[in-house]
Amino acid sequence: MTRIYAIAAAAVIGLLSIGIWVFTTSASGDRFAQCRASAVAGGAGQIGGPFTLVDETGATVTQEDVIDQPALIYFGYTYCPDICPYDAARNAEAVSILDDRGYSVKPVFITIDPERDTPEQLADFTDYLHPRMVGLTGTPEQIAAASKAYRTYYRKQPTEVGDEDYYLVDHSTFSYLTLPDEGFVEYFRRDIEAEDMADTIACFLDAR
């Protein structure tokens, strides 16, 4: 009898927990709550914002030009020996999976190495990964402003005399899902697989 009571109590607690979660989700007015796998201190509005950069054709663009459809944004650099190519390729794979499912998401690669990443260099890099991936560069000040808006980190490593052109850049490795009417809605860590990323992005797109 005691075991039956315990099972019944557990069931009631479970139902109450679900009820509290549903109520909280509804009360918060966040229609994306069921899709979110991360949390941002102060809310999603703390990430993202205006930027002015230069695209692969040399044209000046703003966030309105870039985020004219759902976009997956990554900050990296083309001379990165391992992390950036892997992350950018993973993002491209997730976008291709979404393409097959009937969703259109723009993959965006913003360099944090404007000294070496010219529009032409970015075009070669992004065209190899995905035909719709957009590469963005700019002045050091423009890159810094975009990085600050998305709360990313990067720092050029010191080099030996005579090797000034051969340097690494430490940087954060998040990917950011942004929507035209919402701005930033979710970030992805680098350990997420392309299929799981695509599933989460699809959830956000269906909930719009």
Automatic annotation (TrEMBL):
InterPro entries: SCO1/SenC (IPR003782), Thioredoxin-like_sf (IPR036249). CDD domains: SCO. One of its GO terms (molecular function) is metal ion binding. The keyword Zinc does not apply. Cu cation binds at C80, C84, H171. Disulfide bonds join C80-C84. Pfam families: SCO1-SenC. Keywords: Copper, Disulfide bond, Metal-binding. The keyword Metal-binding applies. PANTHER family: ELECTRON TRANSPORT PROTIN SCO1/SENC FAMILY MEMBER (PTHR12151), LINALOOL DEHYDRATASE_ISOMERASE DOMAIN-CONTAINING PROTEIN (PTHR12151:SF25). Belongs to the SCO1/2 family. This is Regulatory protein SenC. The lineage of its organism: Bacteria, Pseudomonadati, Pseudomonadota, Alphaproteobacteria, Rhodobacterales.
